[in-house]
Structures are given as structure tokens and as C-alpha cells.
Amino acid sequence: MVKLGNDWQQILSEEFDKEYYTILRGFLKNEYENGAVFPSMFDIFNSLKYTSYNDVKVVIIGQDPYHRINQAHGLCFSVKPGVRKPPSLVNIFKELATDVGAPMPENGCLIPWAKQGVLLLNTILTVREGKPMSHKGYGWENFTDAVLKALNRREKPIIFLLWGSPAKAKGSLITNKRHFILEAPHPSPLSAHYGFFGCKHFSNVNDLLKSLGAAPIDWQIK
Fold first, then answer.
1. Secondary structure E strands in the chain
2. Is residue 1 predicted with pLDDT exceeding 90?
3. In what order do the strands lie in the sheet with 118-122?
């Protein structure tokens, strides 16, 4: 039984009983038993554990976890302390520096964001070592769609940051006019120069939060 430890537990309880999730669970059991899969099975749902449903202010949507050893820990774009920052995360911090003046941090662990209400959600929550997108099409998409649909139903406004085409495609699930959607190219070195750099999403988010009477996000990783 998955234990999320907050209000997500009840909101998503029916998902864990659905046929697709039963099939997904069997697939994952086999994957973890027969090879290296990331993140650790204990970290798969960290995005939901760190940021409860009612506390979500901002959603950043990623694709699947980092596929190298010791990188992924259940939060999109984030790596464990002491792990070299991947190129996309470096570019996120570069934009952060030019946008709000936050210096390049020593580590790439984004748990401080998650604890402030930034849901760092990958659309696929597991991956085989060295094989990006290897768990695509096995059921995670159904589960994370359910997460986004639940957020869409919420009355309190949420700001969604959609970086890159896959994340923008998920934006079709956000139909509630109370919410805000900010779009930009993916921070990957292949696309960051086509509009991610200069998007000013971090300052825009805080301006929107202030307009809603909510506390801004302290984006600096200390």
C-alpha cells in the first residue's frame, strides 16, 4: 500500500485500486527485482509527499526521472545533494540568477522549493538505468493525469509552469480558469536559448502569488 502521508492519500485512493495501477505495480516489481531502476522505490512519490494537495502553489512538470545512478529522488529536475547538476538544472539556475538574482547554488536539491508549495511532478515516475523514457506507456501517464485533474478541480488558484512540448501537452488538462499557465521552451541545452532564457517565470510566479495574497517562493537554494 502506498502511503503518502497527507491529503493526497484520500484524493488518489481510487487510483491505487484501478486495473492500470495493478498492472503497473506488477511491472515495477519485476523491473526493480531484475535491474537498476530510479529513483529508489522509497522515493517514487516524493513529489506528492513533500507537497500536499492543499499546499500546492506552483506546479513544474517534468518528463521522467534522471536515469543515472544517485541522481533521481522523486522530484522533477532535482538531484540529491552532492550530485553534479545536470545541464537542464544548470540552465534553470542560470535563468533564476538573471531573473531574480539568486546565485548559482552548490547543490541541485530542490526540496526547499517543494516544501514551499512547488509540486515538482514528472509525468512518468520511474526509469531504467541508462534508458530514458523506458517506462513510458506502462501506466504512469494515467496516474499523473489523475494528479493534474485533481489540481485542476481545486478552487484555490495554482500556477503551472510548462517547459517544453511534453509539458505543454499536459496543459490541456488545466481547464479551470482560476489557474494560471506560463509556458516556455524546455531548459535543455538544445532548446533553452529559444525562449527559456529570459522567460522570467520565477519573478512572474512571485508577482502572481503576491497578487493572490499568497507568500512568494524563496527560489534561492542555500
1. 37-38, 58-62, 118-122, 127-128, 159-163, 180-184
2. no
3. 118-122, 58-62, 159-163, 180-184
- Grade residue 60 by pLDDT with cuts at 50, 70 and 90: very high
Q: Examine the pLDDT at 126 and tell me if it is beyond 80.
A: yes
Is residue 84 scored above 80 in pLDDT? yes
The more confident residue out of 166 and 127 is: 127
Count the alpha carbons within 13 Å of 82 in the hemisphere toward its beta carbon: 2
Separation of alpha carbons 91 and 188, rounded Å:
7
User: What residues does 184 pair with on adjacent strands?
Assistant: 163
99 in active site: no
**One of 64, 99, 145, 218 is an active-site residue; which one?**
64
Task: Identify the pLDDT of residue 69.
Answer: 93
Tally Cβ neighbours within 10 Å of residue 125.
Answer: 26
CB atoms within 10 A of CB 167: 22
- Beta strands 118-122 and 180-184 are unpaired
Please report which helix (H) or strand (E) contains residue 28, including its range.
Answer: helix 19-34
- Distances 143 to 2, 42, 96, 146 between C-alpha atoms, Å: 13, 17, 30, 5
Give the C-alpha separation, 5 to 167, whole Å: 27
Q: Which phi and psi angles does 10 have, rounded to 5°?
A: -75, -40
